[in-house]
Amino acid sequence: MNKRIYLSLAHIGGREQDFIKEAFDTNWVVPLGPNVDGFESDLKDYLGEGRHVVALSSGTAALHLALIQSGVQAGDTVICQSFTFAASANPVVYLGAQPVFVDSETDTWNMNPTLLEEAIQDILRKTGKKPKAIIVVHLYGMPAKMAEILEIANRYDIPVIEDAAEALGSSLNGQKCGTFGQYGILSFNGNKIITTSGGGALVCRTEEEAKRTMFYATQARDPAPHYQHSHIGYNYRMSNICAGIGRGQMLVLDKHVARRRTIHRFYSERLQGLSGITVMQAPAPAYNANYWLTCIVINPALAGYTREDIRLQMEAANIETRPLWKPLHLQPVFKDCPYYGEKVSETLFDHGLCLPSGSALTGDELQRVVEIINVVEQANSNLQTSGLSISSS
Fold first, then answer.
1. Gap between the Cα atoms of 208 and 93, Å rounded
2. Do residues 280 and 296 lie in contact, with contact meaning Cβ atoms separated by under 8 Å?
3. 16-253 and 254-392 share one fold
4. Across-strand partners of 354?
5. Domain residue ranges of the chain, discontinuous segments joined by +
6. How far apart are CA 97 and CA 308, in angstroms?
7. What are the start-end ranges of the H helices in 218-252?
8. Which of 8, 7, 24 is nearest to 16 (CA)?
9. How many CB atoms lie under 10 A from the CB of residue 122?
10. What are the DSSP calls for 294-313, one per residue?
């Protein structure tokens, strides 16, 4: 059998072990240390816009601390994007608050601004209280419609938390994703653009917010010679070893982003002639996506086959693909949460597929992926000449 092709593997650049070795040589193997400081500085320089960055144990930890600093408490509501991974909403529940889910729009697949305002107005009408925060996600590295979302949020004076876990390297009108909201969330999980093996970061607007984040992330210890705590804290800081991996990864970040964009162009060019298959595209040049994952949507009525037909054929060929995110309002754990929308995210989930997109993929491996889609297409064409189709056979 052919070597397995994975969806998005970590891609090591070469200098990571130098920073890790330095940590061991200097005995900085505990949490915090020079690599953490260096990694935060590298991220701050990369994002620009005067932001402050705190390296943490995960993107989920970053979101949790952003919600805490936004004043979210038990009984509050937080508006969340439905079409995303569960980690974008789980920390809301950690705090005893209720997620309120909003559907996507068709251009970027991200939060629909019109439905966002509808949700805010309805919550105000029913409860007399506005939502405490809005969590918007740049899905698959595609920037959301931030101008429209921020205009609505500012009008109602609701802080925006920007989940850029999949969007490091993406930009909108030249501004880096992760720098639009009151807080920005980054993830360095093993399948992201760059990795620290596991980790994340919170992007803050002010030094005061960054210091407060560090305080909460290191068990909220008060400034005293003994251990004293006036607030509940968390063990959320990134280790100096993991940060060493991150420093090495920052040296190849632009290269990794460029490769993902090249992979997206490859798929777009090779699949453009196939009826019923649409490759996700930026709606305008201002949306400079990193294309963390290249995604396709299959229209069975036009293609004659389904998302599952392609996915199963890929799996048989030892190629990992994945359906698009199942909307959170359809997840059993969130079944009782309010939802504002129609069927956009549901339709994308039913018909969408993520293709292998890792920056380490070779041209031959990408060609294997396309060939499997062509096999499905050809098999359907043969059946159609017999008056059948794959999806009906």
1. 26
2. yes
3. no
4. 295, 322
5. 16-253, 254-392
6. 36
7. 240-250
8. 24
9. 13
10. EEEEE-HHHHSS-HHHHHHH
The total of other beta-carbon atoms located within 10 Å of residue 191's CB is 16
Nearest CA to 11 out of 185, 258, 368, 324 is that of 258
The residues facing 161 across adjacent strands are 135, 183
pTM, full prediction: 0.94
Amino acid, single-letter form, for residue 120: I
**Token digits for 391?**
């999806």
The tokens describing 47, both together, are 């994002």
What six digits make up the tokens of 179? 């720098």
**Residue 216 · residue 236 · CB < 8 Å:** yes
In this structure, CATH architecture of domain 254-392: Alpha-Beta Complex (3.90)
Q: Is the pLDDT of residue 391 over 80?
A: no
Closest of 48, 51, 38 to residue 249, by C-alpha: 38
For the domain made up of 16-253, the CATH class stated in words is alpha beta
| Residue keyed to tokens 């909201």 | 181
Give the integer Cα–Cα distance in Å for 244 and 16. Answer: 6
Could you read off the pLDDT of 152-196 as tens digits, one per residue? 999 999 999 999 999 999 999 999 999 999 999 999 999 999 999
- Look up residue 6 and give its amino acid: Y
Residue (of 135, 68, 148, 144) closest to 102 by Cα position = 135
Cross-sheet strand order for the sheet of 77-81: 52-56, 200-204, 183-187, 160-163, 133-137, 77-81, 98-102, 339-340
Rg for the chain, CA atoms, rounded: 22
State the amino acid at position 176 in one-letter form: K
